[in-house]
Amino acid sequence: MIDKKEKEYQEFGAFLVDYVRDLNHLSEDGWAVLVEGPRDLRALRKLGFSGELVTVGQFAKQGARSVGAKKVVILTDLDREGAYLASRCVRLLNQFGLKGSLAERRRLKRASRRVFLHVENLVRFAGASFTDHGIETGVGLEQARMGQREDGRSGKT
């Protein structure tokens, strides 16, 4: 029998399959995705996102030149600092004449039900749902449930 927490993880993993597919479709329509840092970037790549990714650091250093698109999905962490960065990025993108969207971040936050806060940890929840769709993450549901990272260490940072 599947316990409640495991069911939540499975449901969230299934959501992630659709979520990454949707991000890829947005990318095909000319959107870039802005994340906080390189670990977030690697996590999205591992989940199968193939579009343009830009980190906040790249954007801070290079401004609009770091973004090849005119529209940007802002996908910062779901904690307080991530919310602050997201609102700041929207303002900066607008100043550069780019469109920033928080819709996908809000969608992820609603779906997560506070299961996680950091984008870099999304791969923990990929497990079976992704392998069912031909995406190999190297992270199983058991690892996600136990809060372990790929290298076997505890997921707490």
Percent helix range = 40-55%
Can you tell me the overall shape? globular
As for the number of domains, it is: 1
Mean pLDDT: 81
What kind of sheet is the major sheet?
Answer: 4 strands, parallel
For the record, the CATH class is: Alpha Beta
The first-to-last residue Cα distance is: 31 Å
Based on helices, strands and strand pairing, what is the structural class?
Answer: alpha/beta
Predict the CATH topology: Dna Topoisomerase Vi A Subunit, Chain: A, domain 2
> In sequence order, what are the helices and strands, one letter per element?
HEHEHEHEHHH
**CA gyration radius, whole angstroms:** 15 Å
CATH-scheme architecture: 3-Layer(aba) Sandwich
Parts with pLDDT < 50 across at least 5 consecutive residues:
128-157
Number of DSSP-assigned strands:
4
Number of helices: 7
Q: Numbering strands along the chain, what is their spatial order in the largest sheet? A: 2-1-3-4
Tell me the strand percentage band. Answer: 5-15%
Question: What would you note in describing this structure?
Answer:
With 157 residues, the protein is α/β, with parallel strands linked by helices. Helices cover 50% and strands 10% of the residues. Strand 3, helix 4 and strand 4 form a beta-alpha-beta unit. The longest helix has 25 residues, at 4-28.
